[in-house]
Design goal:
This protein is of the alpha/beta class and about 200 residues long. It has one domain (about 20-160): Ribonuclease H-like superfamily/Ribonuclease H (Nucleotidyltransferase, domain 5). The chain has helices at about 55-70, 80-85, 90-100, 135-160, 165-170, 175-185, and strands spanning about 20-25, 35-40, 75-80, 110-115, 125-130. A 5-stranded mixed sheet has the order 3-2-1-4-5. A hairpin with an 8-residue loop joins strand 1 (about 20-25) and strand 2. The N and C termini lie far apart (about 55 Å).
Length: about 200
């Protein structure tokens, strides 16, 4: 089985077309959850590609055009903060992955899902792999796309709502982010179903 320098595998089963799927932003207090799906070619090689969390920002953005140019197909799916509030973050994560698969120009025969749970996609089988973004190259590639596309969006939203420093925290629940919510109230992009403050009674709408 082909591996790269970081010992990630290129496929789970060589004889089928597999798409790796991963999401970003599940634990954030603001913004969408974003997922990506990636089908890599059988001859794909890259020594740097790894779980997006193990790479720095420069490395992630260095890898994104390589993945997009060399992938047989890739798709990115977004689920908004309002949808997250309506259907909960777990279902939103599944929906984002489904939307990413919908964008694929080539239909995969099997989905490789990062994590331990998934809602089956119609007519395509799947395998859930815990910490799969550190084990399989297609999932790692999906993690890079999901992370960078979401970061791009949060950087754009930061321009409109600079008080929350989304250019730095990307919407994650840092101490500074929670302090900004306490000081300035919630923005139109915060997830109201999440615990935004340690004491929800202090929230300003």
């Amino acid at each position: 089985m082909k591996k790269n320098k970081t010992s990630l595998q290129l496929y789970l089963q060589e004889s089928r077309i597999e798409a790796g799927c991963d999401e970003a932003g599940r634990g954030c207090l603001a913004g969408p959850v974003v997922a990506a799906a990636v089908i890599l070619p059988a001859n794909f090689e890259n020594q740097l590609l790894n779980d997006s969390k193990k790479l720095n920002e420069k490395q992630r953005y260095q890898l994104r055009p390589i993945i997009e140019e060399q992938a047989l197909a890739f798709g990115v799916g977004f689920v908004s903060h309002t949808e997250i509030d309506e259907i909960n973050i777990l279902n939103a994560s599944f929906l984002a992955m489904h939307r990413a698969v919908n964008q694929l120009q080539q239909k995969p025969e099997h989905l490789l899902i990062d994590g331990n749970r998934f809602k089956a996609y119609p007519e395509i089988g799947h395998t859930c792999i815990v910490k799969g973004d550190g084990k399989l190259l297609p999932i790692a590639a999906a993690s890079i796309l999901a992370k960078t596309y979401r970061d791009d969006l949060m950087n754009e939203l930061h321009q409109q709502f600079p008080n929350y420093a989304w250019d730095k925290n990307k919407g994650y629940p840092t101490k500074a982010h929670r302090q900004a919510i306490e000081q300035f109230g919630v923005s139109p992009h915060h997830r109201l179903s999440f615990r935004l403050l340690e004491d929800q009674l202090k929230l300003k709408f």
